[in-house]
Each structure stands twice: as structure tokens, then as C-alpha cells.
Amino acid sequence: MRHDHIISAKQLSRADIEAVLDHAADIAADPSAYADRHADTLLGLLFFEPSTRTKMSFTAAMKRLGGDIVDMGSVESSSVKKGESLADTVRVVEGYADALVLRHPMEGSAKMASEFVDVPLVNAGDGAGQHPTQTLLDLYTIRENAGFDDLTIGIMGDLKYGRTVHSLAHALTNVDARQHFISPESLQLPRSVRYDLHQEGAEVREHTELETVLPELDVLYVTRIQRERFPDESEYREVAGQYQIDSETLDAAKDDLTVMHPLPRVDEIAHDVDDTEYATYFEQAHNGVPVRMALLDLLLEANR
Amino acid sequence: MSDDDQQLRVAKIRNGTVIDHITGGQALNVLAILGIDGTGGDSVSVAMNMPSDRLGKKDIVKVEGKELSQNEVDVLSLIAPAATINIVRDFEVIEKARVERPSAVEGILECPNHNCISTVDEPVESRFAVVDDGVRCEYCDTIIRDDLPAHILAD
Question: What's this model's pTM, rounded to 2 decimal places?
């Protein structure tokens, strides 16, 4: 794999994806073999909005490769609070680190930032835009549990603002998956993602109710419906209840259904699903470390 | 009546640009692209919805003392794909060209997504790829299909 920056799932070919996932599988099988691989490497973490899983898993990944991190800290305690531009911030921090990871609330921020730096930059989520490393760990989890052959996946929840959904939908076109999107009409996929899926000739269907498609699914990918997006609380309540699943809901599913969620969840997956064979979301979160180790290793090696 | 005859209906210019074969009704949007609103003192002639063999109806804009930049021509091509641009010096047309649809336009349109990084105070220009039936922000992917002139950046 040879990319200077990882900005969007759209830039990843099937071969790129397989290379990262295969490497992640090797790392997961024997992590100690990679313990000193990047002993002198520093990864710069620039998180402009709160993050738990993504930030911690990048930190863990870099440290498990033998390297370390330099962390900008919270926005409140950084020069951003003084009005520094993102372009200036990344230009300064590239002098401290061998690669950068950026999480930012605005769409296109990673793309813009990458135009100002020479070290590899990884997009760790840009507003409602893209989240390509989440997609790689999602694909790893899907491949481990359901495989890529003849895959039927349902993606449910906030499809409009969910960056994990946008990235995953693009990547799934590479494995010719049948994609079913389940959401309230007000939270359907944005125009740009529909355009790309159409251009790619993806097999896509849209639904407002899970029941119509659940028995066909190999994977159900659930996302949080974001209350803060609704202008009226009662409108949120009306749709939110329709997109909750519990163990009873899953009676209609295939026995080997894989249920995924990028987390954090609120109430869209009941806790009684956690103890079923379907629940894969914690395994999915844990896969973030070997997958990010693999990606960082490939990027750093390619840019040595 | 030929196109040449039609052009005589509006005054000849000494130096400047004549934009002909503009899609009927788009002349005011062309002026918006050129940043001409009458306050700058430019001498401008506009003919709208003139009969045209090629287009049915066309608009013509003549601007004294101005030659178009490539960026302006690129955006013009999106709303008036059949337009021809005539550069005039000393009342003579010294250059005549058709607009060509570009692959991208930069620094001319504003992204309508207020959460796009190109809309805030960062040292980058807006940049749009030209797609089948519109333009697409190269930062946030937002697609604009309708009413492109409404998204032209103010000077």
C-alpha cells in the first residue's frame, strides 16, 4: 500500500484493504513480533473533538509498535483556543512527529490539513464526512465473522450524519456487498454518498423498517440516532424507538447474524443482546488496535 | 436575421469582452460571475432572449475594458456551455473562443455546507470538481446541482 495520507475510504482499493487486513491478522496472531518495530517513532495526535475509542486505540497501536505519541491535548488547553488555524497547527506539529492523526468537527478538515504537511496524515473522523480507520476495523470484523463472499449487510440508524456509515458504504462497494440502508426518511444517506454508490454500480436498497430485511442479513451494523440533530425532541422520540433492537427482535434473524456498532451506543442495542452470539461490537472495538497497528506500520514503512 | 446582425443591436465596444451564445435568460448570472453589479462603473451592454439559430434564444453580454480570467470562463461554462468569448481591441475581435467545461473550478464558488472546512478562515480556496450534472466540493463532497450562480463567492 502506498498512500501518503489516509483521508477517505474512497481512496482504498480492494488490494489496499486486503493488505491492511492481512497485516492486521498477522499482528493479532503474534503482537510481540512487532513490539520494537517503530521504537523511535512519534505519532502526533490532534483531536479537536472528544474521542475515547479512536484516540486510545491509536495510542495503544503506536505504543504496541514500540513508538510513542505526542498529544495536542484538549482544544481548551491548546493554541486553537487563541484562534490558531488548523493549517498552522498541523504545520507546527509535523515538526514534532513522524505521522499525524487528526479528528476534527468540520468536514474536509483532514483533506485540507493533508495539503499542508509532508508527514503521513490519517483522518480519524472529520465531522459528518469520513472515518476510514473505523471502516478498516469494521471490514476486519466483518471478514473475520461473515466473510466478504456473497455478503448482505444492513446498515441502520443515522445514515445522514454518520461518518462511519459513509466510509463503510464506500468500502463495501469494493467487496460487492449487497447493502440495505435502514433509517427514518429524514436521516437517509446524503446525496454525495448516493452519487458514489450509483457510480460504482453498488447493489443498494433503502428501507424505513428493519423487519422487512432482517432475515436476509449476514451483518447488521447499527449506529446511534443522534438526538442533537433533531429540531424537535418529539420527532426524535418518534423515530428513535423504531430503531432499537433487543434479543427478541433478533429472533427473526439468521442464526449466524453478526451485530456490529461503532460505539458509543445509547439505547439502540439493548443490553440483553450482549450475551447472545450475535453481539460483536466489543470485539469490533478491540480490533481497532491491530488494524491501526497494521495501517501505521504500512504507512510508516512506505514513507521511510 | 444572422447572429452578426443581432450583435449590432447593442453598442460596439472599443476594448473588452463580448460573451455571445449565452443560454437564454442567464445574462444576469453571467454578470454575477464577473462580479459586475453596476456599482463599479463598468460600461456593460446586455441583450436577453435574442433569437438564435443554434440555441433558440440567447443572451449577449458586452463588457467594456474587461478580459475574463480562466476561472471566470470555467464557471461561465457551467451555466452557459455554448457561450463564445470574443476579445475585442480597437473595435476588432482579436480572439474568439468557445468555453470548455473544466474538470474543476477554484476560488469562485462557495460551498453551501456551513460545516465544510473551506467556509472558515483557513488559507485555502474553495475547490469543486465538475461532475455529470453539477459540481462537487473537493473538501466535504457536497454536490451542487441547481442554481450555481447563488453560490458564487462575493468579492
Answer: 0.89
